[in-house]
Amino acid sequence: MGRLLTVNGLSTEFRTERGVVRAVNNVSYNIDEGEIVGLVGESGCGKSVSQLSLMQLIPNPPGRVVAGSAEFEGVDLLKYTRRSRELCAIRGNRISMIFQEPMTSLNPAMTIARQMSEVLTLHLNLDKKEARERSTDMLAQVGIPDPGKRADDYPHQLSGGMRQRVMVAMAMLCSPKLIIADEATTALDATIQAQLLELMYDLVGRYHTALVMVTHNLGIVARYADRVNVMYAGRIIETGTVKEIWADPLHPYTEGLLSCVPKLGEKLEPIKGMPPSLINRPATCPFLPRCRFRTAACFKEPAAELTYVGGQHATACNRRLEER
Q1: Which of 31, 40, 35 is nearest to 182 (CA)?
Q2: Which stretches make up the ABC transporter domain (predicted)?
Q3: How confident is the model at residue 263 (pLDDT cuts 50, 70, 90)?
Q4: CATH 3.40.50.300 residue spans of the chain
């Protein structure tokens, strides 16, 4: 597999009345062709902001990407402005995004067919008839019954699960090389969530599309992902293959997340405390106040950099790095 996306030193901040919120802080990672990568962490850790930054969808003001590069198929996405012709040709075509809440992503005043046809007309220059046929075919592929009729419905006429299937269909219309699923199944019940996850897994395998799964659910990642990036306080604090991280979690935060995964007959162990303020970021390890493995040395050392310990496994914990 070839390298599809390489992100180096990505940093994004928001200017507020209370100060500058450093939502993403020097994040680096890569994605290969056809690979499924999980991006996990608590709410507010920077998962969604990091992905929106790649797509240049951060509202400015108050937010802006202040540093870094994101090379996609040899092109740095961050060198373009938000509305540049070059980026618009990639966004929705070579890279697609499935958002968390389809009712805020779909236009309530336009039919499903018209919204899907706009994508095909813009990126593939299809005429009205061809766009309609391709849209209907993709709706059928994502399991929407009677797609010809449903294509003429408005978003409010569909259930939540159906609307999210429409979002998956729109993301796949132009056969993209990369799909970013931002908590795409969070608002759905467990049964519909499982159906959609299996659907996305089948589609990305069929079209050899890379997928970033942004989620707080490690159970989903364990089943579908090849690699995992764990984020905390705007940084990636552990990365590795699913097998490496599940067999030997190296960061105390990752251990805490794994202990929160429900297991039959076992009591859940929540991570105590709250994430740190991203305005007054501590110089030491940001997880220090919540860490049950902290030592006196942790209060004197700067936060560790992400360091590889073997294979694809890396961590940003001074104590665990010393043990290695």
Answers
A1: 40
A2: 5-258
A3: confident
A4: 3-94+176-323
Take residue 129 and report the two structure tokens written for it.
């008839």
Distance between first and last Cα of the chain: 30
> Which amino acid, residue 315?
T
Query: By the 8 A CB rule, do 75 and 68 touch?
Result: no
Q: How many other β-carbons are positioned within 10 Å of the β-carbon of residue 1?
A: 11
3-94+176-323, CATH topology level: Rossmann fold (3.40.50)
What are the tens digits of pLDDT across the range 178-196?
999 998 877 677 788 888 8
CA 156, 162, 168, 170: dihedral to nearest 10 degrees? -40
**What sign for the dihedral angle of Cα 94, 99, 105, 110?**
positive
Highest mean pLDDT: which range of 127-141, 210-224, 289-303: 127-141
| Alpha-carbon distances of 78 from 9, 13, 58, 66, 187, rounded to whole Å | 12, 15, 12, 10, 31
